[in-house]
Design goal:
single chain; 301 residues; mainly beta; 4-stranded antiparallel β-sheet
Length: 301
């Protein structure tokens, strides 16, 4: 776990709300309080393109499966579907009545899914010209905080303390009530377990099929002003979490003990983090800065 700082850059966006790798990890997206999304090369820190059309802070963004489009959600209650190369909006969707907190695509990027402060999840067929959602999921009793989309499930977390699993093929809903507000989620690479980061400064590992809480990871400090994101490193050997005091905490997946603390910058809250899709590399945001941490090549070999 010999992680070292690989790169650090200021996105010039004010506070960073979210950082996300694209599908192959060659590029990243940063979402800022300046209402913009930026496409950046994380190795060099070079800003490739900026996307500007939202009327308020951008809370989340994700790239399509072929990296040709971007989906973003904003505090202005809108979702925008962008053309990566032209930098222009292809479609703007304004059916939520609260700020959009999280966005995702399905596997082939034909359906856009969004979660909102209006307690709903909405699904849009972005191949059509229809402006209304093809499905609205209204079971949550509080703000939707995160989404995970698998081949046949939409998984949502909410501040009402519940994880909901919508089986698209069977048309069924199952739920696991954690009882503590959930602020973010991650899924293991084998799609068997969900990590739920909760407001009580713990991450719970939940069995996806049975709903049992298998273990808890404690040691990071939470924040009421930011959602503390979590993730699983390549190979499902380690769990990572942001923290209030500028640390990325790395836990052993099985033992649940802390094996590493990465001190990020000046101690600001880690407002967002993202695990590289194929490498032992972590992208994290703190204040105005984005940092890339990775295991040295010699350590990986």
């Amino acid at each position: 776990m010999n992680y070292s700082l690989r790169n650090k850059f200021d996105c010039n966006q004010g506070a960073i709300r979210a950082v996300r790798y694209n599908i192959d990890g060659n590029y990243c997206l940063s979402c800022g309080a300046d209402r913009k999304i930026k496409l950046i090369n994380p190795e060099s820190g070079l800003m490739i393109k900026s996307y500007s059309a939202h009327g308020d802070e951008v809370n989340d963004a994700t790239g399509s499966c072929d990296s040709s489009f971007i989906l973003s959600g904003s505090k202005d209650k809108s979702i925008i579907y962008w053309d990566v190369f032209t930098g222009l909006p292809v479609r703007r969707l304004r059916t939520h009545v609260g700020g959009v907190t999280c966005v995702s695509f399905n596997d082939d990027s034909t359906v856009a899914i969004s979660g909102s402060r209006d307690n709903s999840v909405q699904c849009f067929d972005i191949r059509s010209r229809a402006m209304e959602p093809i499905q609205t999921l209204k079971e949550a009793k509080d703000c939707i905080t995160d989404l995970i989309v698998t081949e046949n499930k939409i998984i949502s977390s909410s501040l009402d303390g519940t994880i909901r699993y919508y089986d698209i093929r069977a048309g069924e809903l199952t739920s696991d009530k954690i009882g503590i507000p959930i602020v973010s989620m991650a899924i293991t690479s084998d799609n068997q377990c969900i990590l739920a980061s909760c407001q009580d400064e713990s991450i719970r590992l939940v069995d996806l099929d049975g709903g049992e809480i298998l273990t808890e990871y404690k040691g990071h400090k939470g924040s009421k002003d930011y959602r503390i994101e979590c993730g699983v490193l390549k190979g499902d050997g380690y769990v990572i979490s942001g923290s209030k005091f500028g640390e990325v905490i790395i836990y052993d997946f099985l033992e649940a003990n802390i094996v590493k603390r990465l001190q990020i910058g000046s101690g600001n809250t880690i407002s967002s983090l993202c695990v590289h899709p194929s490498m032992d590399q972590i992208l994290c945001a703190s204040g105005r800065d984005v940092q890339v941490w990775s295991i040295n090549d010699s350590d990986e070999n």
